[in-house]
Design goal:
homodimer, 440 residues, alpha/beta, Rossmann fold, Dihydrodipicolinate Reductase, domain 2, Alpha-Beta Plaits, 3 domains, ten-stranded mixed β-sheet, six-stranded parallel β-sheet, 16 helices, 16 strands, elongated, methionine biosynthesis (chains A, B), NADP (chains A, B)
């Protein structure tokens, strides 16, 4: 009693190859578990050198997408080309041909998700994108299924394995950012051009996708403030450790009275928080629901095989029909929701770590405290250390604040940076406290 | 465009009350997100004093289940009576009336799951039980959906919050088991009669349910070896800590060549393992899939509100139709799978911590080493400590083994316990190393 279902993979790179290998090598296991006989019928690409290196059957290779779309047995096409150019055009074409789309393309979803969903809806099919966020971690399923009954109050995600690997190396080995990046590249965990990862762009894509589902509000990617890890200094990681914190590149989303507070940035979290334990290339997302409280989802956020797991889960639900049902029934998809009101960055309320490099002379702290006070910045702790370099005539002053308005702090820091006794631009890192579980 | 769906709750205790409160107070939020207008139409019970204490509308109270089952608008009934007596009879009755069942009843599922599923199938409906394992954590959805494409190689779960709270208290505060149990009771985290929790029975129910889905094999609850935390001594937790381990009550499942190796027992895991960080009443399950590698799911494993989150997720999928689709399509449900072959406990291969209390005299260790050697027990480390009590004439010898057959170790320990120099029955605790990620 197995339902036959043919599928095609479009783009045979790392994830495409791993997905093909999974579908082919585990076909009988998948059929036994799912009751569906999923046949990989086509691998569509221009160049099959990677596919050949994996010893995939050349009988599957096809250069003409039109031929695939004309095959009435094909239920779903897996888009693994990446990017927002040709991938966008072809995704539309696939949907208009009445085929379901499964994709791992976070940039495409973050930028054109609503528009593509509208096309899918018009064509009476669905678009599934579990693999776009958190690699193999079924985090989107948690949001649209497992904890759907909750009003989501916040989520905090480590969603870029490259950055997490680099930060873990810096903290555990005392390496500089540049050294750690080089190690990540040598370990195959960072691209030759790591820009999209280390500047936070990739995390922002995932934040936009996850926020849209979590809060059932369409998030405009361009409005999300993004800061990367590429300017982090080891000295701040070390001061953070003394204070009981580790730094992580976080995708942060909080639902506040006046709108969503979203940002991607390196932030300090307590070593007691489960996210602090997530090391190396692993990813994790902590989600806070009004009924369920704190839940966390952990796993490999990238790599061919883990991503192929998520892609194949979507292939199964596309062939089984549940993907169509949730896509047509639920109202949380970006093409059905209103545009989110985002809190301006300066209106974010948070706690912050600030490091100032100041001249080691009397009266300096009074000047600093004066400016902070004028801006309603209330201090939680102050740490003044011996000069960290014998030759330096400036000493670090490390301050942590109570909850303050970020705009006030930025104003204060701009004023501090102009003081003659402040020798370097101030460093400011948000401290993210554990989100309160509300249960109401 | 909201589909009307009426549901009933059977049994209004802690979880029933929390589910009713969630459905009623969040009805418009749920309708906005799901596109379903889920109406809680009946609360069925004999006694409504708890329901009244929650100020639930008495218009919902109904003592006659038959009347509910005769209402054609009712799509699903939520069974929250608990136990395997009347709950079993009524669940059958509900299913035969053509209503979907949503349940949090782990004992019922572990003991009569296959039989009840067969009834559901005959009646053309489904039975959903996310809340039976891990409270609010969507762990069953991970197994039947999110990481379904994987051959599951193993999973390790902390699935009893009472035990985890007690063990966390023992380790963090140095309290004895009895003191920690008393604290848990005072904090409302342990029942007055904590037997089912602390002896591991509750964890075994969850192990049976999760194993059945993870491995698509029907697990006979009675065949699972179960050991609780009620005989754990602080001295062993302290020795474990010195060796880099923490003790957790674990539901352990490994897929081996000759069958499934299942057990519930207190076990040592490395402080580096994500499960080691799970403290207090939180639960978590680490699952190892052949494609996705290590994934972990974390959250509150009990309590009215978190459990109501899982129950409501099942209500939604029951009303939306996806519960019926996965139940009718997939072949992993216990009524459709073969009975699992379980590895006998003595054939489990593992590493172990052993503590012997021996007379402090020459030649003792030679006797111990001799017996271990005869039984092919190879040692990984040996720690002999000063007497831990001035008056004691016995000293602890702590051994960790390499991977050995558990049967051999048990034979060796029985022989050791008969040695005149061994003063107390030996203590043996499994050491669970990180499961290798396979990706093949």
């Amino acid at each position: 009693m197995k339902r036959p279902s043919a599928v095609a993979i479009l783009g045979c790179g790392t994830v495409g190859g791993a997905t093909a290998a999974l579908l082919l090598s585990q076909r009988s296991m998948l059929a036994a578990k799912t009751g569906l006989d999923i046949e990989l019928r086509y691998i569509v690409d221009k160049d099959f050198s990677h596919a050949e290196s994996l010893n995939l059957d050349p009988g599957l290779f096809e250069t003409e997408l039109d031929k695939v779309l004309a095959d009435p047995d094909v239920l779903a096409v897996v888009e693994l080309i990446g990017g927002t150019g040709i991938a966008r055009t072809l995704t539309e074409k696939i949907l208009r041909a009445g085929k379901r789309v499964v994709t791992a393309n976070k940039a495409l979803l973050a930028k054109h998700g609503a528009e593509l969903m509208a096309v899918a809806r018009e064509a009476g099919v669905s678009i599934s994108f579990e693999a776009s966020c958190g690699g193999g971690i079924p985090i989107l399923r948690a949001l649209y299924d497992g904890i759907l009954p909750n009003r989501i109050d916040a989520f905090y995600g480590i969603v870029n394995g490259t950055c997490n690997y680099i930060l873990t190396e810096m903290m555990q080995k005392g390496n500089s950012y540049q050294e750690a990046l080089k190690e990540a590249q040598e370990a195959g965990l960072a691209e030759a051009d790591p820009t999209l990862d280390v500047t936070g762009g990739d995390s922002a894509h995932k934040l936009a996708i996850m926020s849209s589902l979590a809060f059932a509000q369409r998030v405009d990617l361009e409005s999300v403030p993004v800061q990367g890890i590429d300017s982090l200094k080891l000295i701040d990681l070390n001061f953070g450790r003394e204070l009981g914190y580790v730094v992580k590149l976080l995708a942060i989303a909080q639902s506040e009275e006046d709108g969503l507070a979203l940002r991607v940035r390196p932030a300090f979290i307590s070593t007691e928080h489960p996210l602090a334990w997530v090391s190396g290339p692993f990813n994790a997302v902590s989600v806070y629901g009004h009924a369920v409280g704190h839940t966390m989802y952990y796993g490999r956020g990238a790599g061919g095989s883990p991503t192929a797991s998520a892609v194949t889960a979507d292939i199964i639900s596309s062939c089984m029909g549940t993907a169509d049902t949730v896509f047509s029934t639920l109202n949380i998809w970006p093409d059905r929701t209103k545009k989110a009101v985002l809190l301006p960055q300066e209106d974010i309320q948070g706690r912050y770590y600030v490091r100032l490099m100041v001249e080691d002379q009397p009266g300096v702290f009074a000047q600093i405290a004066g400016i902070l006070g004028e801006n309603q910045i209330s201090l939680s702790s102050v740490l003044q250390k011996e000069p960290y370099n014998d030759k330096a005539d400036a000493v670090p002053v490390v301050i942590t604040t109570h909850s303050v308005r970020e705009g006030n702090l930025r104003t204060a820091l701009a004023a501090l940076d102009k003081l003659p006794v402040v020798r370097e631009p101030s460093i400011c890192i948000e401290i993210l406290d554990e989100h309160e579980e509300i249960f109401a």
